[in-house]
Amino acid sequence: MKASVRLALAATMALMTLAPAALAENQQPTLEELAEQRPMPRPEPVVPPENETDAPAPAAQSPTPQSSLEKERDTHLGSVTNLPIPRYVSLKTNQGNARRGPGLTHRIDWVFTRAGMPLRITAEFEHWRRVEDPDGIGGWVQYSLLSGVRTAIVTLDMAEFRSMPDANAPVVFQAEQGVIGKILKCEPDWCRISAEGNRGWVQKTALWGVDPGEIID
Known about the structure:
This protein is an alpha+beta fold.
């Protein structure tokens, strides 16, 4: 009984050993089987093209705080008054000290001595304004020395003031270079000025204290 069992097991093992060889001789593997046996290639990283429109937008960066001078440069508004920078004002008194910095401890670099002198504000800091005259000379002055009254200074010798804002209009008076007058009205190219008891229209190119194209009613 035991011998017959051993013979049966040996026959079974022989069949199992011969089966693969017979299969290899009589049957070729299919393409699908070959594909399954072939090692899978490693996927390449996908790099989106430079002009990819579906690419996610970069995360928004939080704004960084700006200094007062950066705010003025970016928005053209004064950090104290929220008024345009630069802008024109006039000197209220017969003496105005222009200092190197915004404070009484700073050295005086210049002294303005003509009341009504037009000045251009280029910066603000607390109660101080940085101003300059037609020659670009100036410094920091206290805001209490400045007035919002608009004035202009004649920059041409014997500038002609006319009865109307027209180059063909009659000349009503002439003014020497350096004369200061109060601005009454301005159109894009002309301003009506009151100076030394006279009134007339003059072209802006003969003035300093008003911007080209600026309109004042």
